[in-house]
Design a protein that fits this description.
With 134 residues, the chain is an all-alpha fold. The chain is 68% helix and 0% strand. It contains 5 helices and no strands. It has helices at 2-10, 16-42, 44-51, 65-99, 104-115. Helix 2 (16-42) packs antiparallel against helix 4. The chain is elongated, with a radius of gyration of 21 Å. The N and C termini lie far apart (51 Å).
Length: 134
């Protein structure tokens, strides 16, 4: 329990990409295990179709309906939760920077620096020199 308390209290000391990796690695691992089991038991195409709800888990093409239900519930609940958590983490990061007096533009540039995106890769804005940064 003390490990969790220390982890949670010191988690904002890491850079943003490291936080994303630490927070989402267990969820990504579980998602990968479910999808690999589904691909093994159902087949890759059927797993993909059930995950995206294109095929119901009780369809006659699904060889293992129990695994079909697990993959279907994963696609219906876990995938949107993962996307929402990622967006929430990004918004929380920007809001935390904003509360410390940093503007949104400065926070976005800090995220780009942490992710390794150079400013020269951006297209020129109004009044910019065409061909700059290429």
């Amino acid at each position: 329990m003390q490990f969790l308390i220390r982890y949670w209290s010191g988690r904002r000391t890491y850079p943003f990409p490291v936080l994303m990796l630490i927070d989402f690695l267990p969820m990504l691992f579980l998602l990968a295990v479910i999808l690999l089991l589904g691909a093994w038991l159902l087949g890759g195409r059927i797993t993909y179709d059930v995950l995206l709800s294109n095929t119901p888990p009780y369809d006659q093409d699904v060889r293992n309906p129990e695994m079909g239900w697990v993959v279907w519930i994963t696609g219906w609940l876990v995938v949107p939760a993962f996307i929402g958590a990622l967006a929430g983490e990004a918004v929380g990061y920007v809001m935390e920077r904003r509360m410390t007096g940093i503007t949104v533009r400065q926070a976005a540039e800090a995220i780009k620096e942490e992710l390794g995106i150079a400013a020269s890769q951006q297209p020129p804005g109004p009044g910019g020199t065409p061909g700059a940064g290429q």
